[in-house]
Amino acid sequence: MEPRRVPQNNPKIRQVGFTFNSQTQNPHSQPPLSTTISGGAVENNTSTLSPVMIPPPPFLDTSTSLPVPVPAAAAIPAARRVYDDSHSYLAASSPESTQPDLSEDWLRSSSGKYSLAFDMSGVNSPVADEQSTEGAEITVANHEKGANVSEVQVSHEDKKLSSKPSKDKLSKAERRALQEAQRAAKSNKKAAASGVAAHVTGKPTEASKQPPQKKNVPLRTSSVPVSETKGGNQPSEKDKKKDIPHPRMQYDDKSRVEKAKKRSVVKQTEVRNRVELFRHLPQYEYGNQIHDLESKIFNHDSVHPAVYKVGLQYLSGDISGSNARCIAMLCAFKEAIEDYHTPADKIITRDLTARLNSYVSFLSECRPLSISMGNAIRYLKTRITKLPSSLSESETKTAISSDINRFIHEKIVVADNVIVQQAATKVRDGDVLLTYGCSSVVEMVLVYAHEHGKKFRVVIVDSRPKFEGQGLLRRLVAKGLSCTYTHINAVSYVMHEVTRVFLGAASIFSNGIVYSRIGTACVAMVAHSFRVPVLVCCEAYKFHERVLLDSICANELGDPDVIAKVPGRKDVNYLSNWMNKENLQLLHLLYDATPSDYISLIVTDYGMIPPTSVPVIVREYGKEHLF
Amino acid sequence: MPDVQALVNDFVNKLRKRKIEGSQATARHTAEFLRSVISQQRIPYTNQAGALIDSVKAVGEQLIAANPVELAVGNVVRRVLHIIREEDLSLTTAAIGDLNISDGSDDDENDRDDRPVLSAAALAAAARKTLRPPSLHTLLEDVPNATIVPLSSSGGDSEGKCKSADKSSRIRKLKHDVIEAVNELIQDIDTCHEQIAEQAVEHIHQNEVILTLGRSRTVMEFLCAAKEKKRSFRVFVAEGAPRYQGHVLAKELVARGLQTTVITDSAVFAMISRVNMVIVGAHAIMANGGLIAPVGLNMVALAAQRHAVPFVVVAGSHKLCPLYPHNPEVLLNELKSPSDLLDFGEFSDCLDFGSGNGEPQLHVVNPTFDYVPPNLVSLFITDTGGHNPSYMYRLIADYYSADDLVLQRKSAAGN
Amino acid sequence: MWYRSPSFILDNQEQEKFLLRQQLDQQNDDVLNPPPPPSMSEISIQNPNPNISAYYQTRAAHHAVVTSDWLAQAQAAVSGGVTGEDTVEKVEEDDRVVEKGESVIEEFNSWRKQPDLAEAVAAIRALASVIRSSKATTMMELEIELKKASDSLKSWDATSISLTAACDLFMRYVTRTSALEYEDFNSARSRLMERAEKFGEISYKARRIISMLSQDFIFDGCTILVHGFSRVVLEVLKTAAQNKKSFRVFCTEGRPDRTGLRFSNEMAKLDVPVKLLIDSAVAYSMDEVDMVFVGADGVVESGGIINMMGTYQIALVAHSLNKPVYVAAESYKFARLYPLDQKDMAPALRPIDFGVPVPSKVEIEKSARDYTPPQYLTLLFTDLGVLTPSVVSDELIQLYL
């Protein structure tokens, strides 16, 4: 049995809670974050923890569940969220620097680094000032897909919680029986809704994301998994069961796709000639919606303008690269949270989580979430649920903001620093370094090494259709590095003279497979055949406990039209009419999976590790989420 | 021969300016050109074959120098030389056979000769051996095999038994035979696609998925032939940047009714796990079984090896080259203009070399060909059938003679 | 002793005991009954020291490493041969075959000792001398004599592959020549002798052809790893140096023959930058190396080579690091052997001098050569042209069928 079970305050709540079978979803999602139905928690100060929150591990004092004290960072200037590519950024932020630097450090423009070129300040003002948004938000909440459900549930839970204190004592046996019942109900529900996973790539807490999309489980809001019992016994059980991440939304199931479409904000039309092999991934026609959506930026109530803007930028491809997307999203969330006002008789954490879910679903409609974004969201939700209910609204908001800042600072900025310093030690004088596409971390490594006086050459390999390497080429040449530029077919030709290969990654899975821009696997394979060491630079927050075997099961499909057209080459127009040819399909894959035996070394902020140690990092790193 | 020289110059110009595209077209033109050279060549009475060979060699040298990367030119030149030698030999054998029958009493006379004259059979046998590459069992043979050859062609002369009519008819016959054989060669070159395509059915079964890169006419014929025989299969075509010939191929295949999907070159590794077979064409096949192929195919071959997918190369026999590649990436490669990859206008600031010391900071590489080592290739399909890469040397021995490998003037010995 | 299964150990121990007992018995017997004098035919053509490979001993001599063991054996061989001959001559006059056998070997040995001469050339010269001194009157007789002589040569030193191959090659040539019946005996015979004597030229020409063929594969700025002392490889590198190519050479030390020292001497004479490695440093330096050049003692049917001990090791390392391995070998070294593994050949042992006395209980691996399978070889440079390993069998098939 569970060790040290905190006495359950309110078994009745749990009972009621389980008639909404939706909540029984996801026993293994360890952060049940999302809708912490903690309305009553605010009142119950006797147990510092709401019955529905995931309690911290037993040995930790619950009082420390507050976010790590963020000194003075609350006053994050809303001003410039634009990123600088200056070296001062690197110099200024040392690993030890804490929050005070935060405001300046990563809030610099770097069109190269994180390719974030937007300024949110303009958007901020109109919304923030309105006090009337409160009412608007309530209505907004109502319009949210399935938000009514959450509302209903909230009200339910409210009633439950109010009756909570009276149910303090329950015998152990009864509790156990209840738990068994819950578990049984859970497993039934899970089987039913197993196919319907969130857009969010592989996140175990898909339950929290589900609600807006799938209505076949109407009451499954970002619901409280069973684990939201009183006290701290559940987590260990959940932890054991959380091993298997939920499968994501499978697009070959027509009914689910239809349902998803009905509640989507961004209207996407499906492309006609779909590649059979990729029926399980969404494939839409691009380019139609941007103008539409642009005009609606302030009309859309359910989505905060900042988030809306970021979504559009994803859709149009202005922001790309996992670090950039993640940071953009988090900043947008921060803005949204700042402007957020808790509607009356709603619990802030729960409502906020619901709101976040809606944002996330919007963003994923614009472009499927990357793994980095998924991990960040998961972290955010954990933090939200960990917040003690005793805080006022402004304090909560401040805490969350500072959490986000801390995340960005620690997991991305400082991590990049560490990676750069370590990777630069592997660059010797006279080296010829090869890189593929455009990775922000690798660019930083090269610039850093160059500035520290190492003499080396760079070979940039690029490919269709995005030609991301051209931007990198331009920036590196501007910095004074000697570069050679070629396309991926010629990689066997140049590989003779290459001494090291540096690659970036979108994510690394637990079986050591590196998931990154399409073409990376080819480059790594050729390097391996020429016995050239391959180094992958990747922050640890991008690691994931999923496993992947090949590039087909999990991928992202891009706009097939760009394959038919080649920019700057009018003569290549053989496929201009491809839509009308029924036998012809164009395939535009965005990612691929590089096998782990091609990789010599992974540089992370936890040090230089072999590809076999990735699950170790995932385990260690994952535990941090709970703290 | 002023006429010949003018023609030669004209053809050399065309080759140098790369006006003739594709190895098949080049091979055909070269063969036709050599045929005209031969027909215009005046042959002396003695040593006719030698004269022919010399003239063809002289012309061939110039042609090869015009476009050294287009190996088909050299191949055809060497084929023609080999044809000349073969025809000459067969004529000689026939002639000597006649001699034997008609002049049986000559043996005694031969014995009285100063030279260590061998009998006709030995002569023929020895002469036959000159056409084969040096071999173990000829190792201990008398070195002056070379002297026997001219003996054969001038045999008619030294024998002194032939009537003059025979002589002139023999001369004409040699030329005639050679031209006939060259015509056959031209026809082979033209019909290589059909012969290769006939073998398609043996290799493609139902519900296959085939991957190819770029565009090769041989591959297209191959696939269409299989389609004719009602095999259903799908084709993934990698576009083959920066020429994007894959698009053309895809269009053609779709027009013929095949299910085609166009993918980018970077997606090859991702897709190859779902592919049953890779079929590609080649630019040239070297003597060790290695392949000179359009750029990007080494990557495909490595991926195919990793996933244990058969890598099949279809090529006509005019692409077989008797040379060994000792630095193929550099010596047998052509670098094309960087404008295919980078827009000069966009990058004009980078190309400034403004760092002060004048060193170019930006260097763009755009090779045309790739070398695929023989251990990555599963099968070669030529118009003579399917072969292992380790067997290619045999075909080469059949089509070419060892003396022609180095097509340079005798003065420049020791290449 | 340490074969695959432990039962062998027990079996061996049994056998040793048995042998020991036998020896004791014999000694007792000797005391009692002196053994009958050996018949003449038995003395005849036996290598005085079957446990040492004469081939590798000779090569060691060429490399100017003269150990005391070797000297003693050389003495024994020479004296043994002389006495043998005397004894034989005394006995019977008809036994000319035996006498010839002895003189062939003697002749062979004398030729072989010349450092610049290929083994095969020595063999063929020895056979030429047989022809010269033969009193046969028909081709058949001559053939039989030659066959006997070549057999005796082969059995005298079973470990030398080029000897075997050259003898076989010459025999084939003779057979084929004799098949051309148009000739009379004398002219045929004189031609055979002339060819045999000219074989030295052929061998020399072969080396020139090989060095010409390999020139293209040596590019400027390359690093070549060399193992063992092969005269062909030396010729190749000499030619390259003369053609003003700039390259550098790594020599393995080549214990116990110290071939590396000798080779580096030669390279230094040519002004080629050379670096000596101990045998164990090959893998360490292999990533700097661009290609490996070795000679061959013999080329076997599979396309693999038999060469000085250590070649297999180097080929393995080169293969795993994707470096090409080139073999320079004349075509008369092609032999009809097909070893499946290292132990599938006749053992060729030679004493190894460690410089310090080794206790007698310690076993020493005395084999002087190893077999490199064809998949680790890239190309063979021969006078027949540049060949891939699969061509070797083709040639052999044509020769012998």
TrEMBL record, chain A:
Compartments, record wording: Cytoplasm, Cytosol
Keyword Cytoplasm set for record: yes
Region listing for Disordered, in residue ranges: 21-56, 123-265
A Pfam family this chain is assigned to: IF-2B
Recorded GO CC terms: cytosol; eukaryotic translation initiation factor 2B complex
Biased composition (Polar residues): 21-50, 207-235
Low complexity bias (residue ranges): 179-198
Record-linked InterPro entries: IF-2B-related, IF_2B-like_C, NagB/RpiA_transferase-like
GO molecular function terms listed in the Swiss-Prot or TrEMBL record: translation initiation factor activity
Biological process (GO), any one: cytoplasmic translational initiation
Keywords of the record: Cytoplasm, Initiation factor, Protein biosynthesis
Compositional bias (Basic and acidic residues): 154-178, 236-258
Membership in a protein family: Belongs to the eIF-2B alpha/beta/delta subunits family.
Subunit note: Component of the translation initiation factor 2B (eIF2B) complex which is a heterodecamer of two sets of five different subunits: alpha, beta, gamma, delta and epsilon. Subunits alpha, beta and delta comprise a regulatory subcomplex and subunits epsilon and gamma comprise a catalytic subcomplex. Within the complex, the hexameric regulatory complex resides at the center, with the two heterodimeric catalytic subcomplexes bound on opposite sides.
UniProt-recorded name of the protein: Translation initiation factor eIF2B subunit delta
Species this chain originates from: Spinacia oleracea
Name of the gene: LOC110789486
TrEMBL record, chain B:
InterPro entries found in the cross-reference section: eIF2B_beta_subunit, IF-2B-related, IF_2B-like_C, NagB/RpiA_transferase-like
Protein's recorded name: Translation initiation factor eIF2B subunit beta
Family annotation (Gene3D superfamilies): Translation initiation factor eif-2b, domain 2
Sample GO molecular function, one term: translation initiation factor activity
Major location (coarse): cytoplasm
Subcellular location: Cytoplasm, Cytosol
PANTHER family, per the entry: TRANSLATION INITIATION FACTOR EIF-2B SUBUNIT BETA
Annotated keywords: Cytoplasm, Initiation factor, Protein biosynthesis
Species name: Spinacia oleracea
Subunit architecture: Component of the translation initiation factor 2B (eIF2B) complex which is a heterodecamer of two sets of five different subunits: alpha, beta, gamma, delta and epsilon. Subunits alpha, beta and delta comprise a regulatory subcomplex and subunits epsilon and gamma comprise a catalytic subcomplex. Within the complex, the hexameric regulatory complex resides at the center, with the two heterodimeric catalytic subcomplexes bound on opposite sides.
Transport as UniProt keyword: no
Family to which this protein belongs: Belongs to the eIF-2B alpha/beta/delta subunits family.
GO cellular component assignments: cytosol; eukaryotic translation initiation factor 2B complex
Biological processes per GO annotation: translational initiation
Phylogenetic lineage: Eukaryota, Viridiplantae, Streptophyta, Embryophyta, Tracheophyta
Top-rank taxon, per record: Eukaryota
TrEMBL record, chain C:
One matching Pfam family: IF-2B
Subcellular location: Cytoplasm, Cytosol
GO biological process terms on file: translational initiation
One Gene Ontology CC term in the entry: cytosol
GO molecular function, one term: translation initiation factor activity
Similarity remark: Belongs to the eIF-2B alpha/beta/delta subunits family.
Assembly: Component of the translation initiation factor 2B (eIF2B) complex which is a heterodecamer of two sets of five different subunits: alpha, beta, gamma, delta and epsilon. Subunits alpha, beta and delta comprise a regulatory subcomplex and subunits epsilon and gamma comprise a catalytic subcomplex. Within the complex, the hexameric regulatory complex resides at the center, with the two heterodimeric catalytic subcomplexes bound on opposite sides.
Identification of the protein by name: Translation initiation factor eIF2B subunit alpha
Source species: Spinacia oleracea (Spinach)
Encoding gene per record: LOC110787206
